Amino acid sequence: MKSWPVSAYLKLSIAVALATIALKTGAWWVSGSVSLLSDALESLVNLAGAMFALAMVTIAARPPDAEHPYGHHKAEYFSSGFEGVLILAAALGIAWAAVDRWLNPQPLEAVGLGIVLSVLSSALNGGLAWSMFRKAREVRSMALEADARHLVTDVWTSAGVVAGLLGVLATGWLWLDPLLALVVAANIAREAVSLIRRSADGLMDPALEPEVLQQINVVLAGFAHPTIRFDHVVTRRAGTRRFVDLHMHMPASWSLGRAAALRTSVEQALMSGVPGLRATIQLLPTDVEAHFDDEKDLI
User: Fold this and answer.
1) Containing domain of residue 197, as a range?
2) Is 1 inside any structural domain?
3) What is the pTM of this model?
4) What was the pLDDT predicted at 129?
5) Residue 219 to residue 55: CA distance in whole angstroms
6) Quick one: 23 and 49 in the same domain?
7) Are 126 and 238 part of one and the same domain?
């Protein structure tokens, strides 16, 4: 599965979401447990999130065009934010159902079968999330990581639901069921806020990770020379792509061909050392400085 494209993982996520919806809805239907109902509702969010993520990944894979010269990579952040909003909506729905059941308790039926169905769906989600995390780290896909994180949240939710239902069976305390549903709602709401925050951060061009910046510095150090220096190194992330802009100072007496050849070598070294990196280097004479943050530029 490691060699599959990101879209294949998301299509598989859609298929697994449909299967878990069927299993968890069946678990709620036979038992009448509001906590199992909350688990089923979250699986509906899994389905919607995976479908939207697939659409955004498809857009992000489009090549640059006249209106989007830097590509469409940021589309993945919309997927993460959308999934966060869906999870938050599911949390509110679960909380509403839990409060109603708390005020109007009802006996549970066929809890054992409901637990079996819930455990089976969790096994599907857990296996898929593990493989999606590996792929997300490999290709740095925010959309795939967000979907994997949601699946992990779903697994923990199901584990908590099963533990609570076992508690109901052991004690006969019906209020444990809606109480557990409220805990589930709070947990997935926390995950929703985290996804929305990360999505917003990604849309604001964050700098590259510290370890990647270190890789860039190592490459530049390899070209160190008394007559050559680098400054104004600026980085940013956009989906799976990484960008670095910098100035390279060299003697004014050098020919344009010699300077351009060295710049090409540095750019190639940077892009080879950091996968997915796009490097842009501006050439400047040694005694010329570029000035930023001029007051007139900040208006």
Assistant:
1) 6-203
2) no
3) 0.59
4) 83
5) 37
6) yes
7) no
